[in-house]
Amino acid sequence: MPVLQIEDLHVSVDSKAGLEVVHGISIEINEGETVCLVGESGSGKSVSSLATMGLLPKGSLKVTSGRILLDGENLLDLSPAQLRDARATRMSMIFQEPMTALNPVIKVGEQITEVLQAHTKLSNADCHARVMDILDQVGLPDIERIARSYPHQLSGGQRQRIMIAMALVLEPRLLIADEPTTALDVTTQLQILKLIKDLQVKHGTAVLFITHDMGVVAEIADRVYVMNRGDLVEDGPVSQILSAPQKDYTRQLLSSVPSLVPRPARPVTDPKPALQVSELNKIYGGGKFLSKTKTTHAARDVTFELKAGRTLGIVGESGSGKSTVARCVMRMIDPSSGGIRVGGQEIAGLTRGGLHPFRKKLQMVFQDPYRSLNPRLTIEESIIEGPVNYGMPKDQARARAAELLELVGLPASAAQRYPHMFSGGQRQRIAIARALAMEPELLVADEAVSALDVSVQAQVLELLAEIQQRTGIAILFITHDLRVAAQICDEVCVMRRGEVVEIGATGDVLGNPQHEYTQALLSAAPGRDWDFANFRPVAA
Amino acid sequence: MAEKTLRGAFPLSTRLLTERVGIAPMIAAVVLALIILAAIFAPLIVPHDPILQDPVMRLKPPSAEYLLGTDAYGRDLLSRVIYGARVSLMIGIGVTIMAVVLGLAIGLVSGFFRTADAIVMRVMDGLMAMPSVLLAIAIVSLMGASIWTVMAAITIPEIPRVVRLVRSIVLSAREEPYVEAAIALGTSMPRVLWRHLMPNTFAPLTVQATYVCASAILTEAILSFLGAGVSTETPTWGNIMAEARIYFQLKPMLILWPGLALSLCILSINLLGDAARDILDPRMGKRED
Fold first, then answer.
1. Helix B77-112 to helix B147-173 angle, to the nearest 10 degrees?
2. Partner of A309 at 20 to 30 A CA spacing, among A18, A390, A463, B119?
């Protein structure tokens, strides 16, 4: 008998209109099996898992029909108290963001002990022994100290290990992992994936793994269910889904995954440098005189050059200083020392007023398309803001905005609407149009496609490449995703803890990495052995 | 989808509004509207001149001619209470407008510019350290009592609360990428403040304004009661109560009626403020279940 059997599950919005968001899905998971539920945002994958845990937000979503059987018992028939009991002992869940899932004011050891005390009658000593045992199993060092730490004192990877320890301490039959590695760096992600796999083998837990990342699927899944807009598109063993997908949607999803094999670099067309950064330093903290505080060297002697019409990628994990460099270049923050030359003009030392003429030359596209547009302004008002600041008559700016909207593939009618009426990908297009309205020489894209689904990501990347070809703009592309970097960048600069460890042509850096850190990053990239777009393993 | 639910929750008709905020704010709105109308049309509706003294008719109980009776100088209590609403509302509204406008301007600047912030917030801390009634009494005794000095005296202690609110909103809003984008687009600082930051403060300010208004009316009554408010010839709720104080054991009704008007007025304003918060800030609002 399967551990979890979902039969014809329907979930609707809990209101009179009752819009259905999950249209009858059926999933089966056996003991010791990892099943991946894959889909883009809005596919209903998280809703399905929350329904299983009985955690659907009350008053906004409800299960309308179907059965969810855990070891043959229908969870939908259980009373709230029974369900609460089942949640810890027989099924448990780990979430995407371990910082928000842990209580910040209780020591992590106590949080795990709490789970034990709520569901078992173990003595204090036994509890402690169990906690130490599970902390040891999830591979944490110095477990006595970790148990006495508060969540903020641990790293993201350590916090996620604590979450896993908490979820598995009662040895549940089913573990639901909702994007557990999405917020983590690739090297940490690899470790966590390994850990889940190891513990699963040891305890025979059934794992329902929810992810949007095909790389992770290739790493961890035994079987895969593909979801789209609340429907189950396709399911099957992982090798079959990856190598011979039956449905168009699956094929399209797989072909959107950017390849890790770098695209050939383009010839240098214009030798004019658009951006020169030399020995850039940014030191945070330091306090004032009399009050010395600890300093953080967020960028250390960063030097690179970017020619017009080309794309330089800065890759690195969180805390590597890549965003600091981008914000220094944009002069959103003041560099501590070093030079930034835009089109041959030094801007590192300019004041707010002196900077005004140069703002026009550099524009930025931000990570979160939901927050980078003012929700109270229409699209047109947002786009014409820059040109009007630099003295363009409003009528002319409006005409230009209409052209730009067309350029980024949006209808002219979009101009009078507000940001909330658009999807994430469309908003990112609008943000690009807004940046282009200034006719900049340099576009800084800070994780500009990281918040988007892969299919949308592919479209936005294509748009950027097309615009670059047409306008000869230089792009500084900040990303943590090596796949994206491989596809869009001519040159790549790898950063770690504020320092540039390797810089060069994309083909060289990612094809034949010299520095050990670059090698580590590449070998941690999930699904590196699989060529998704061609449905076959990477040719060695 | 969450957005859709929230937008659906915004009231489009009266029926929806009652469903969302309950019946109490509706009653409050009606009571407040009646008080405002009475204040505006006071000269037309009062049965007697509120300051005309008639020694023969001192301390009379309620009758057909004097519905609420008369005070120690033989003046009609009902007429005086109605006229009292004029001063109270004028001060409430005047103080609210001044406190919100000044507080908004100071708060915006203080939230956006660090150097200004360091100075402005220390001044505000200093103001908040003083009891507001005491500060108001000091200001009134320095400048002499008139409706304008009373208004100024009540406004000054109210400003820091508005400033703090606006500043906290600006501090969080200025980290939004759209504000950074505006700076990158070369938008001047005053324009960033005006166009991108200020609109974020409107909803919370509307709610705060109702509390400022209620608090101003109350402070005015306290000042009048203590004899530090507008001159005793002008009928205000505080003045009427102050004069009635000595006859409290004899004629408790003399204090009851202006007190009741004051309480009703403040309760109505506060209820409307709560309703405004429920509507404008969906996170704090009641859940529809």
1. 40
2. A390
